[in-house]
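B., you asked whether I could sanity-check this one before it goes into the benchmark set. Here's the sequence:
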Amino acid sequence: MKLPKQKHKAEEHLITIYPNVQFGEPTIDHTRITAEAMALQWWSGMALDKIERSWRGINRGAVFVCCLYMASYGSRIWKKRWKEWLEGASVELWKSN
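And here's what the prediction gave me:
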């Protein structure tokens, strides 16, 4: 009998808001890296592998969650930038297992 594969903590990425971490800005859980800073890295054209090497403990999933968060809950400029991407990404997310 095979046991279900358990998710490793590093595979789960959450955006958290704590008043005492980065002045209440949304950050990647258990880091002090803001969602906006991470989304900005990707938006400015930095390659995902370079982002992973530059930021300890960050992988593609964390970058995706930051972009998704900023597209959904960020300021008006972020929502405008990411609107088309969010529409396509949400469709793909619903299809994935």
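One thing to flag: The chain is about 50% helix and 5% strand. Otherwise nothing jumped out at me.
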